[in-house]
Amino acid sequence: MIIDGHAHLILPVEKHLALMETAGVERTLLFTTRVHPERAHDLETLNQELRIFNEIIAGKVNNGLQPFQQAVSEVAQVIQQYPEHFTGFANVPLGLTQEETATWIEKYVLPAGFRGFGEFTMQSGSVHQLEVIFACASEYGNLPLWVHTLPPLNLDDIHQLVALSRRYPRVPLILGHMGGMYWRETIALAKEVPQTYLDLSGTITFLGPRIAIHELPTRTLFSSDAPFGHPLIARTIVEQATADTAVRRRVLGENLAELLHLN
Protein backbone atom coordinates (compact mmCIF):
# COMPACT_ATOMS: atom_id res chain seq x y z
CA MET A 1 0.00 0.00 0.00
CA ILE A 2 1.31 3.44 -0.95
CA ILE A 3 0.60 5.93 1.82
CA ASP A 4 1.17 9.66 1.66
CA GLY A 5 2.46 10.25 5.18
CA HIS A 6 1.68 13.94 5.48
CA ALA A 7 -0.90 16.06 3.70
CA HIS A 8 -3.31 18.79 4.67
CA LEU A 9 -6.95 18.62 3.75
CA ILE A 10 -7.61 19.97 0.26
CA LEU A 11 -11.10 21.25 -0.49
CA PRO A 12 -13.19 20.07 -2.13
CA VAL A 13 -12.25 16.57 -1.00
CA GLU A 14 -12.80 15.24 -4.52
CA LYS A 15 -9.84 17.33 -5.65
CA HIS A 16 -7.67 15.67 -3.03
CA LEU A 17 -8.85 12.21 -4.08
CA ALA A 18 -8.07 13.01 -7.72
CA LEU A 19 -4.56 14.09 -6.72
CA MET A 20 -4.06 10.80 -4.90
CA GLU A 21 -5.28 8.80 -7.89
CA THR A 22 -2.88 10.61 -10.21
CA ALA A 23 0.02 9.69 -7.92
CA GLY A 24 -1.11 6.11 -7.29
CA VAL A 25 -1.54 6.86 -3.58
CA GLU A 26 -3.98 4.52 -1.87
CA ARG A 27 -4.19 6.20 1.53
CA THR A 28 -3.26 9.60 2.92
CA LEU A 29 -2.44 10.62 6.46
CA LEU A 30 -4.45 13.82 6.84
CA PHE A 31 -3.57 16.74 9.08
CA THR A 32 -5.67 19.70 10.10
CA THR A 33 -5.31 23.09 8.46
CA ARG A 34 -6.67 26.58 8.90
CA VAL A 35 -5.45 27.83 5.53
CA HIS A 36 -6.13 26.55 2.03
CA PRO A 37 -3.41 27.67 -0.42
CA GLU A 38 -4.92 25.40 -3.07
CA ARG A 39 -7.59 28.08 -3.48
CA ALA A 40 -5.00 30.61 -4.66
CA HIS A 41 -4.93 31.41 -8.37
CA ASP A 42 -2.14 33.99 -8.41
CA LEU A 43 0.61 35.43 -6.20
CA GLU A 44 -1.67 37.93 -4.51
CA THR A 45 -4.25 35.37 -3.40
CA LEU A 46 -1.51 32.96 -2.36
CA ASN A 47 0.06 35.65 -0.20
CA GLN A 48 -3.31 36.29 1.41
CA GLU A 49 -3.59 32.65 2.46
CA LEU A 50 0.01 32.43 3.62
CA ARG A 51 -0.30 35.67 5.57
CA ILE A 52 -2.87 33.91 7.71
CA PHE A 53 -0.52 30.95 8.08
CA ASN A 54 2.36 33.18 9.17
CA GLU A 55 0.15 35.00 11.67
CA ILE A 56 -0.95 31.69 13.16
CA ILE A 57 2.67 30.64 13.65
CA ALA A 58 3.49 34.02 15.20
CA GLY A 59 0.52 33.81 17.55
CA LYS A 60 -1.06 36.96 16.08
CA VAL A 61 -4.45 35.40 15.36
CA ASN A 62 -6.94 33.51 17.46
CA ASN A 63 -5.15 30.42 18.72
CA GLY A 64 -7.89 29.63 21.22
CA LEU A 65 -9.57 26.27 21.51
CA GLN A 66 -12.46 26.90 19.10
CA PRO A 67 -10.34 27.09 15.91
CA PHE A 68 -8.60 23.86 16.94
CA GLN A 69 -11.95 22.18 17.53
CA GLN A 70 -13.25 23.25 14.13
CA ALA A 71 -10.13 22.07 12.30
CA VAL A 72 -10.08 18.69 14.05
CA SER A 73 -13.80 18.21 13.42
CA GLU A 74 -13.35 19.01 9.72
CA VAL A 75 -10.70 16.31 9.26
CA ALA A 76 -12.64 13.80 11.38
CA GLN A 77 -15.68 14.21 9.14
CA VAL A 78 -13.65 13.59 5.99
CA ILE A 79 -12.03 10.48 7.48
CA GLN A 80 -15.44 9.18 8.49
CA GLN A 81 -16.75 9.82 4.98
CA TYR A 82 -13.77 8.19 3.21
CA PRO A 83 -12.30 5.68 5.69
CA GLU A 84 -10.71 3.63 2.92
CA HIS A 85 -8.68 6.61 1.69
CA PHE A 86 -7.82 8.69 4.75
CA THR A 87 -6.31 8.27 8.19
CA GLY A 88 -5.60 11.23 10.42
CA PHE A 89 -3.50 12.94 13.05
CA ALA A 90 -5.19 15.45 15.34
CA ASN A 91 -3.74 18.72 16.45
CA VAL A 92 -3.64 19.38 20.17
CA PRO A 93 -3.37 22.91 21.58
CA LEU A 94 -0.12 23.74 23.32
CA GLY A 95 0.01 25.55 26.63
CA LEU A 96 -2.63 23.46 28.39
CA THR A 97 -2.01 21.58 31.61
CA GLN A 98 -1.52 17.83 31.39
CA GLU A 99 -5.02 17.30 32.76
CA GLU A 100 -6.53 19.69 30.21
CA THR A 101 -4.56 18.04 27.41
CA ALA A 102 -5.78 14.60 28.50
CA THR A 103 -9.36 15.88 28.47
CA TRP A 104 -8.86 17.23 24.94
CA ILE A 105 -7.46 13.90 23.76
CA GLU A 106 -10.32 11.94 25.30
CA LYS A 107 -12.91 14.28 23.78
CA TYR A 108 -11.56 15.01 20.31
CA VAL A 109 -8.79 12.57 19.41
CA LEU A 110 -9.59 9.07 20.62
CA PRO A 111 -13.33 8.94 19.75
CA ALA A 112 -12.60 9.98 16.15
CA GLY A 113 -9.96 7.29 15.70
CA PHE A 114 -7.00 9.59 15.08
CA ARG A 115 -3.69 7.71 15.01
CA GLY A 116 -1.39 10.39 16.41
CA PHE A 117 -0.83 14.03 17.32
CA GLY A 118 0.28 16.90 15.12
CA GLU A 119 1.25 18.82 13.18
CA PHE A 120 2.93 20.89 15.89
CA THR A 121 4.27 24.19 14.55
CA MET A 122 5.75 26.54 17.12
CA GLN A 123 8.08 29.42 17.70
CA SER A 124 11.78 28.90 18.31
CA GLY A 125 12.47 28.41 22.01
CA SER A 126 9.12 26.80 22.78
CA VAL A 127 9.87 23.10 22.22
CA HIS A 128 9.48 22.56 25.97
CA GLN A 129 5.72 22.98 25.48
CA LEU A 130 5.68 19.53 23.91
CA GLU A 131 6.59 17.93 27.25
CA VAL A 132 2.90 17.68 28.13
CA ILE A 133 2.10 16.12 24.74
CA PHE A 134 4.82 13.49 25.13
CA ALA A 135 3.59 12.69 28.64
CA CYS A 136 -0.01 12.28 27.48
CA ALA A 137 1.04 10.27 24.42
CA SER A 138 2.79 7.81 26.71
CA GLU A 139 -0.44 7.38 28.67
CA TYR A 140 -2.62 6.80 25.60
CA GLY A 141 -0.93 3.91 23.85
CA ASN A 142 2.26 5.72 22.80
CA LEU A 143 0.62 7.53 19.91
CA PRO A 144 3.22 9.22 17.68
CA LEU A 145 3.92 12.95 17.49
CA TRP A 146 4.53 14.84 14.24
CA VAL A 147 6.56 18.03 14.66
CA HIS A 148 7.27 20.68 12.01
CA THR A 149 11.07 21.16 11.98
CA LEU A 150 11.30 23.92 9.39
CA PRO A 151 11.57 27.59 10.47
CA PRO A 152 10.74 29.13 12.84
CA LEU A 153 12.54 26.21 14.54
CA ASN A 154 16.33 26.16 14.26
CA LEU A 155 18.99 23.54 14.87
CA ASP A 156 19.09 24.20 18.62
CA ASP A 157 15.33 23.59 18.76
CA ILE A 158 15.72 20.32 16.85
CA HIS A 159 18.38 19.19 19.31
CA GLN A 160 16.04 20.07 22.19
CA LEU A 161 13.22 18.18 20.52
CA VAL A 162 15.26 15.02 20.13
CA ALA A 163 16.55 15.36 23.69
CA LEU A 164 12.95 15.52 24.88
CA SER A 165 12.14 12.45 22.81
CA ARG A 166 14.91 10.51 24.55
CA ARG A 167 12.94 10.85 27.79
CA TYR A 168 9.97 9.06 26.20
CA PRO A 169 11.58 6.15 24.32
CA ARG A 170 8.27 4.40 23.64
CA VAL A 171 6.64 7.43 22.01
CA PRO A 172 7.45 7.68 18.27
CA LEU A 173 8.53 11.10 17.05
CA ILE A 174 8.23 12.05 13.39
CA LEU A 175 10.63 14.83 12.45
CA GLY A 176 8.51 16.65 9.91
CA HIS A 177 10.29 17.98 6.82
CA MET A 178 13.52 16.36 8.04
CA GLY A 179 14.94 19.54 9.53
CA GLY A 180 14.92 21.60 6.34
CA MET A 181 18.37 23.11 5.83
CA TYR A 182 19.58 21.07 8.81
CA TRP A 183 18.78 17.76 7.13
CA ARG A 184 22.25 16.28 7.65
CA GLU A 185 22.23 17.01 11.36
CA THR A 186 18.65 15.76 11.64
CA ILE A 187 19.49 12.45 9.97
CA ALA A 188 22.43 12.03 12.35
CA LEU A 189 20.22 12.73 15.37
CA ALA A 190 17.56 10.29 14.17
CA LYS A 191 20.17 7.55 13.82
CA GLU A 192 20.94 7.90 17.52
CA VAL A 193 17.33 7.72 18.73
CA PRO A 194 15.44 4.62 17.54
CA GLN A 195 11.93 5.98 18.09
CA THR A 196 12.45 8.87 15.67
CA TYR A 197 11.27 8.86 12.06
CA LEU A 198 12.16 11.12 9.14
CA ASP A 199 9.42 12.74 7.08
CA LEU A 200 10.57 13.51 3.53
CA SER A 201 8.16 16.29 2.60
CA GLY A 202 9.38 19.81 2.00
CA THR A 203 13.02 18.79 1.67
CA ILE A 204 15.26 21.36 0.00
CA THR A 205 17.53 18.98 -1.92
CA PHE A 206 17.28 15.56 -3.57
CA LEU A 207 20.38 14.50 -1.64
CA GLY A 208 18.46 14.70 1.62
CA PRO A 209 15.89 11.98 0.85
CA ARG A 210 18.52 9.83 -0.86
CA ILE A 211 20.82 9.85 2.16
CA ALA A 212 17.95 9.52 4.62
CA ILE A 213 16.62 6.43 2.86
CA HIS A 214 20.09 4.91 2.73
CA GLU A 215 20.78 5.55 6.42
CA LEU A 216 17.31 4.78 7.83
CA PRO A 217 15.34 2.69 5.32
CA THR A 218 12.91 1.44 7.98
CA ARG A 219 12.32 4.87 9.56
CA THR A 220 11.93 7.14 6.56
CA LEU A 221 8.43 8.14 5.41
CA PHE A 222 7.20 9.22 1.98
CA SER A 223 4.93 12.26 2.11
CA SER A 224 3.89 15.20 -0.02
CA ASP A 225 2.77 17.97 2.35
CA ALA A 226 -0.02 18.64 -0.15
CA PRO A 227 -1.19 21.20 -1.16
CA PHE A 228 2.28 22.71 -0.63
CA GLY A 229 3.76 19.68 -2.39
CA HIS A 230 2.49 17.19 -4.97
CA PRO A 231 2.24 13.46 -4.16
CA LEU A 232 3.36 12.37 -7.62
CA ILE A 233 6.51 14.48 -7.39
CA ALA A 234 7.17 13.24 -3.86
CA ARG A 235 6.70 9.63 -4.95
CA THR A 236 9.05 10.13 -7.90
CA ILE A 237 11.74 11.47 -5.57
CA VAL A 238 11.56 8.29 -3.48
CA GLU A 239 11.62 6.06 -6.54
CA GLN A 240 14.66 7.88 -7.90
CA ALA A 241 16.40 7.93 -4.52
CA THR A 242 16.75 4.16 -4.26
CA ALA A 243 16.87 1.33 -6.78
CA ASP A 244 16.07 -1.28 -4.12
CA THR A 245 12.43 -2.23 -4.67
CA ALA A 246 12.03 -3.62 -1.16
CA VAL A 247 13.29 -0.36 0.33
CA ARG A 248 10.99 1.61 -1.95
CA ARG A 249 7.99 -0.36 -0.69
CA ARG A 250 8.99 0.31 2.89
CA VAL A 251 9.44 4.05 2.42
CA LEU A 252 6.34 4.46 0.24
CA GLY A 253 4.02 2.88 2.78
CA GLU A 254 5.15 -0.14 4.76
CA ASN A 255 7.05 1.87 7.36
CA LEU A 256 4.06 4.06 8.13
CA ALA A 257 1.62 1.15 8.03
CA GLU A 258 3.69 -0.62 10.67
CA LEU A 259 4.03 2.50 12.79
CA LEU A 260 0.29 3.22 12.77
CA HIS A 261 -0.83 -0.43 12.79
CA LEU A 262 -2.74 -0.04 9.53
CA ASN A 263 -4.05 -3.16 7.81
Automatic annotation (TrEMBL):
It comes from the Bacteria. Residues 3-261 form the Amidohydrolase-related domain. GO terms for cellular component: cytoplasm. GO terms for biological process: secondary metabolic process. GO terms for molecular function: carboxy-lyase activity; hydrolase activity. This is Amidohydrolase. The lineage of its organism: Bacteria, Bacillati, Chloroflexota, Ktedonobacteria, Ktedonobacterales. Keywords: Hydrolase, Lyase. InterPro entries: ACMSD (IPR032465), Amidohydro-rel (IPR006680), Metal_Hydrolase (IPR032466). It comes from Thermosporothrix sp. COM3.
